[in-house]
C-alpha cells in the first residue's frame, strides 16, 4: 500500500507522488481528473501496474478503482436511427480540447457554477471529476456534452432539513441522529454534487442529459471517493430546474430550495463594513460582494448607504428579481443569490428508501400544459383547382404559340379529389415532388380559405368544421424569450424552445429579425407549440435545418402531437433524413396532375426503399 504525497496536473495528465512503507517515493501518471488526493491510501496491482485503486477507509478490502479510467457506452435513438454515446474521463490532449470547446456552452443557469472562491473553499482539494460524452454518427465522433462532479458545500438548507430526520446505513458505518456540525463534517464526503451538466446545443432535445446523469450516478457509485469514503447521495441544484426538470427521470427528487442570500446579504455587508466577523456564508465571497458594491457606487456616483438601503428594499420585495431596474439588475445580480431548486438521489437501496420516506416535495410542479381535447376531421371529395386567366402579353403569346395552347384560362386540377379523415394525436405527412401541390393541399385544409375566391378554387363534397393554424412570423424587435415568457410562462417558453431544438441562450435573447433562417423557423415552431390551436398546417417542414436538427425537431413534434392530441398536417419535399423520427400516421403522396395516394407510413417506407434501391 502507498500513500499519496502530492499530485499535480499537467494538461490531460495528473502526476501522483507516492510513498511506500519503506519511505521510498516514486511518481505515477494518471488521467487528469483521477480521483486521488493527498493522504489517500493507494493499492497497485503488482502484476498489472495499470490497475490502480484507492483503498476504502471503512474496509481495506474494498478497492476503489482509479485506473484504467472509467468509460461507458449508451445510445440515443431518433426514429429508426441509433447514435452511439461514449462516455469517458479526460484521457488525452484531444479530450482536453473537447472539454474546453464544450465549456463555452455552459451557462451559469444550467448548473450551479460556483465562483472560484467557492471552489477553493469547498473542503479538501476541491475534488472534481469530469465525464465527457461523444456522439458517434457513422464515422464521425463529436463532443456532445459533459458532466462535472464536485464535492458538496457544507451547508445547504434543504439537505440540512432532510438529514435532520436522522439516518442509519444498515451496512456501512454511517449514521447520525441529528445533522449537526459534527455529523456534517464527518459525513459530508458521503455526498457528491453535480456541478455542471452541459449538452452541446445541437444535441439538446435528444434527451441525452438524462443519460449523462445516469452515467454519472454509475461512475460515482463505482469510482467517486473523498478521503476513502464512497458516496451515498448525489445532489444537484440549479436555476434551470425551476423551469425544466431534467433530473427526476434520472431518479432525483426535489427536496426544497436553497436559501440564497436574500435574507442576509444586507446584514452581512453591514457587518463587513463595520469590520465584524460575518456569521454565516463564505467570507471571501462576502468580500467579493462588498468590493463589487463599492465599485458600483464609484462608477455610478451613488452613496453606499443608499445602495444598501435599496438592496434591503429589493430583498424584501415579493418578487425581488422584478423589483430591480434593468441597470440595477446588471450590477446587483452578481451580489444577490436567489433560492434555487435542490434535488437529491440515493446511490443505493437504503438511501433511496430514506429519501422515499422523508422527502416531502418530490418533483417540480408541472406547468400548465396545452390540452385541446378531442378533435377530428372528416372531408370528402376535397379538390383544389387553379383558375387563372392567361394574360396576352407578347411573351406569353410566344409561349402559347410555341406549345400550341389554345385556352384563355388555365383551369387545371392541382389536387384531388381526395378524402381525408384524421383524429387527435395524428400526423399526416404530405409528400411529393416540387410543384405537385403540397402547399395547395395545406391551403385547401385551412377552413379560412374555403370561402375565398381567386385563382385557386377549393371545393369539397362535405367537410367537418375545425380551426387550423400555420407558422407565422414573430414580432421583429422583441427578444423571442421575452415574447414567449410574457405570453405564457418562463417554464413553458423554455420547454417549447427546447422541444424545437432551439436551446442556445444567445438565440433566446435575440429578437426574431436577428435570428438565422433555421433559428427563425424553430422559433415559429415553438410559437405554434405554445398556441392553443388543435390543427396544424406546417409547410416546408425543417427545410432550413441541418439533418440532425431536423431529426430532433421531428422527433419532438411527434411526441408533442401525441401527448397533446393535436392533428398535424406536415408537408416537405425533402424528408428522407427525418421522416422516421416524425413517424407520421399517414402519408399522402401527390403526383403532378392532382393524383393523390394515401398510405400508411410502413407502406410508404417499403415503396420508398424499393424506389431507392
Ligand atoms: N394561388 C394559386 N393560384 C393558382 N395556382 C396556384 C396557386 N398556388 C399554387 N398554384 C399552382 O399549384 C401548383 C402546385 O403548387 P404548390 O405550391 O402547392 O407546390 P408544392 O408541391 O408545394 O411545391 P414545392 O415543393 O416546390 O413547394 C403549381 O403549379 C402552382 O403554380
UniProtKB/TrEMBL annotation:
Residues 391-612 form the ABC transporter domain. Residues 90-277 form the N-acetyltransferase domain. GO terms for molecular function: acyltransferase activity, transferring groups other than amino-acyl groups; ATP binding; ATP hydrolysis activity; ATPase-coupled transmembrane transporter activity. Keywords: ATP-binding, Nucleotide-binding, Transferase, Transport. Coiled coil: none annotated. This is GNAT family N-acetyltransferase. It comes from the Bacteria. One of its GO terms (cellular component) is ATP-binding cassette (ABC) transporter complex.
Amino acid at each position: 500500500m502507498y500513500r499519496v504525497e502530492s499530485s499535480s496536473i499537467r494538461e490531460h495528465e495528473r502526476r501522483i507522488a507516492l510513498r511506500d512503507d519503506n519511505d521510498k517515493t516514486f511518481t505515477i501518471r494518471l488521467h487528469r481528473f483521477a480521483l486521488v488526493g493527498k493522504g489517500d491510501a493507494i493499492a497497485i496491482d503488482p502484476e498489472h501496474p495499470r490497475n490502480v485503486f484507492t483503498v476504502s477507509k471503512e474496509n481495506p478490502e474494498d478497492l476503489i478503482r482509479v485506473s484504467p479510467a472509467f468509460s461507458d457506452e449508451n445510445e440515443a435513438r431518433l426514429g429508426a436511427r441509433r447514435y452511439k454515446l461514449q462516455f469517458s474521463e479526460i484521457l488525452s490532449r484531444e479530450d482536453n480540447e473537447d472539454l474546453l470547446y464544450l465549456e463555452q456552452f455552459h451557462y451559469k443557469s444550467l448548473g450551479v457554477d460556483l465562483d472560484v472562491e467557492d471552489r477553493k473553499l469547498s473542503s479538501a482539494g476541491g475534488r472534481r471529476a469530469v465525464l465527457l460524452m461523444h456522439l458517434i454518427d457513422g464515422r464521425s465522433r463529436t463532443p456532445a456534452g459533459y458532466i462535472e462532479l464536485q464535492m458538496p458545500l457544507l451547508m445547504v438548507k434543504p439537505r440540512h432539513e432532510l438529514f435532520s430526520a436522522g439516518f442509519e446505513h444498515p451496512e456501512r458505518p454511517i449514521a447520525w441522529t441529528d445533522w449537526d456540525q459534527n455529523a456534517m463534517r464527518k459525513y459530508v464526503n458521503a455526498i457528491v454534487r453535480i456541478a455542471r451538466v452541459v449538452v452541446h446545443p445541437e444535441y439538446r432535445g435528444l434527451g441525452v442529459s438524462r443519460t449523462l446523469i445516469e452515467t454519472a450516478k454509475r461512475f460515482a457509485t463505482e469510482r467517486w471517493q473523498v478521503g476513502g469514503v464512497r458516496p451515498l447521495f448525489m445532489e444537484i441544484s440549479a436555476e434551470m430546474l425551476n423551469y425544466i426538470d431534467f433530473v427526476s427521470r434520472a431518479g432525483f427528487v426535489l427536496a426544497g430550495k436553497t436559501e440564497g442570500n436574500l435574507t442576509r446579504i444586507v446584514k452581512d455587508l453591514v457587518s463587513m463594513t463595520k469590520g465584524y466577523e460575518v456569521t454565516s456564508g463564505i467570507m471571501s465571497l462576502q468580500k467579493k460582494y462588498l468590493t463589487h458594491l463599492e465599485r458600483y457606487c464609484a462608477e455610478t456616483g451613488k452613496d453606499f448607504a443608499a445602495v444598501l438601503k435599496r438592496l434591503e428594499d429589493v430583498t424584501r420585495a415579493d418578487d425581488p428579481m422584478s423589483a430591480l431596474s434593468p441597470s440595477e439588475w446588471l450590477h446587483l445580480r452578481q451580489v444577490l443569490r436567489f433560492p434555487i431548486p435542490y434535488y437529491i438521489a440515493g446511490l443505493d437501496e437504503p438511501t433511496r428508501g430514506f429519501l422515499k420516506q422523508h422527502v416531502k416535495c418530490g418533483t417540480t410542479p408541472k406547468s400548465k400544459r396545452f390540452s385541446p381535447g378531442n378533435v377530428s376531421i372528416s372531408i370528402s371529395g376535397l379538390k383544389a383547382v387553379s383558375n387563372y386567366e392567361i394574360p396576352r402579353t407578347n411573351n406569353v403569346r410566344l409561349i402559347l404559340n410555341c406549345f400550341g395552347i389554345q385556352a384563355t384560362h388555365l383551369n387545371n386540377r392541382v389536387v384531388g379529389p381526395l378524402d381525408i379523415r384524421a383524429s387527435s394525436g395524428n400526423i399526416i405527412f404530405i409528400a411529393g415532388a416540387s410543384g405537385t401541390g403540397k402547399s395547395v393541399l395545406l391551403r385547401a385544409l385551412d377552413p379560412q380559405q374555403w370561402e375565398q375566391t381567386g385563382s385557386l378554387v377549393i371545393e369539397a363534397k362535405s367537410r367537418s368544421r375545425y380551426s387550423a393554424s400555420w407558422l407565422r412570423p414573430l414580432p421583429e424587435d422583441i427578444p423571442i424569450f421575452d415574447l414567449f415568457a410574457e405570453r405564457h410562462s418562463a417554464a413553458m417558453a423554455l420547454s417549447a424552445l427546447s422541444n424545437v431544438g432551439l436551446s442556445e441562450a444567445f438565440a433566446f435573447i435575440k429578437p426574431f429579425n436577428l435570428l438565422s433562417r433555421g433559428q427563425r423557423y424553430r422559433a415559429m415552431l415553438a410559437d405554434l407549440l405554445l398556441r392553443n390551436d388543435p390543427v396544424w398546417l406546417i409547410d416546408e417542414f425543417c427545410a432550413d435545418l441541418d439533418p440532425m436538427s431536423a431529426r430532433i425537431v421531428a422527433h419532438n413534434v411527434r411526441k408533442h402531437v401525441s401527448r397533446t392530441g393535436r392533428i398535424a398536417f406536415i408537408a416537405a419535399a425533402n424528408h428522407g433524413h427525418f421522416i422516421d423520427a416524425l413517424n407520421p400516421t399517414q402519408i399522402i403522396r401527390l403526383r403532378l396532375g392532382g393524383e393523390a395516394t394515401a398510405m400508411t407510413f410502413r407502406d410508404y417506407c417499403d415503396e420508398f426503399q424499393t424506389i431507392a434501391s
